[in-house]
Amino acid sequence: MTQPLPRSSREIRLVRQPHALPVPDDLAVFDVPLRALGAGEILVRNRYFLVFPGLRTLMGDETDGVPLPPLHAGDTLFGPAVGEVAAVGEGAAVELGDLVVHLEGWREFAVLGADGYAPAGGALPDPVAHLSTGSAAYGALTRLAPVRDGDTVFVSGAAGATGAMAGQIARLLGAGRVVGSTGSAAKAARLRKEFGFDAVVVRGTGPFTTLLAEAAPDGIDVVVDMVGGEQLTAAVAIARSGARIALLGALAGQLAADRAGGSSPAEIDSYRLVVRGITMRGYRGVDHPSVPAEWERQFGRWLREGTIRFPYEVVPGIDRAPSVLQEMIAGRHFGTVVVAP
């Protein structure tokens, strides 16, 4: 028997612009009516949506050049989601019960046009795996900073959604030593025990350059940087000749309480870049359109073989989503964080 469709849906809106890091009171749950479907449209019941740090930037005052629209008071949050088709309009290209991926997360139900979703397909064995940010790490390690056999790879922010995948990907691509950084001893232990990192630097336990040099005594060949700041400074300082540095994020600035979310200054020894022939490039997905499909095939194969682990935490209930965003920014979770509304 077909379940009756709801007349309304709950969604998370920004109710006031944060003056520093967002807090739960900056967000609120609203009940909104659902409109009738037009030709080709579908109604999707979201099963999971991604909580990601880039939302802090979109809420801030520095959004120039950001490839996503800024968020203002009254706007509904958005982001990657996996949902089940609950109703279809005339001429829709999917069927009831199909899984689709889209960008209308942070709500229970979403009305999507034909160009607003993609079928999930069967390449990945776990629906939540469609919300992995490993594609960026894979693209960086195959396009910008390709790993060579025996390389020493440093991953900053290694316990985050992208970092935990980057270390494993580097190993699978031939890295000989994988070093990470994180903010707690407990996370460092997990990275070593469960995800194959050879060494993990815990920030705040000493001068970062000294700690990183001890963890990578022969220097670094490849850097996958999600943090910037002192960690990027240190990585450049001990990088070997010909090292490749891929920048995927800048959380030291993005998540700083005294900044506006869209800048992250770092002190870089440019002379070292020159004399050691070090390359440094920022990774943008739009520059590498072939990566997502290639990553999905490779990721699915690795998951089925058991050669890669996808760490994620599912938080049930849309009411908890505002607090989860704050928790993720504060580093209280490990790996990918999703809400099951």
TrEMBL record:
Alphabetized UniProt keyword annotations: Oxidoreductase
CDD domains found in the cross-reference section: PGDH
Top-rank taxon, per record: Bacteria
GO molecular function, one term: oxidoreductase activity, acting on the CH-CH group of donors, NAD or NADP as acceptor
Keyword Oxidoreductase listed: yes
Domain (Enoyl reductase (ER)): residue spans on this chain: 22-339
Lineage: Bacteria, Bacillati, Actinomycetota, Actinomycetes, Kitasatosporales
InterPro entries from the UniProt entry: ADH-like_C, ADH_N_2, ER, GroES-like_sf, MDR_fam, NAD(P)-bd_dom_sf
Name assigned to this protein: NADP-dependent oxidoreductase
Gene3D superfamilies registered for this protein in UniProt: Medium-chain alcohol dehydrogenases, catalytic domain, NAD(P)-binding Rossmann-like Domain
Pfam family, one: ADH_zinc_N
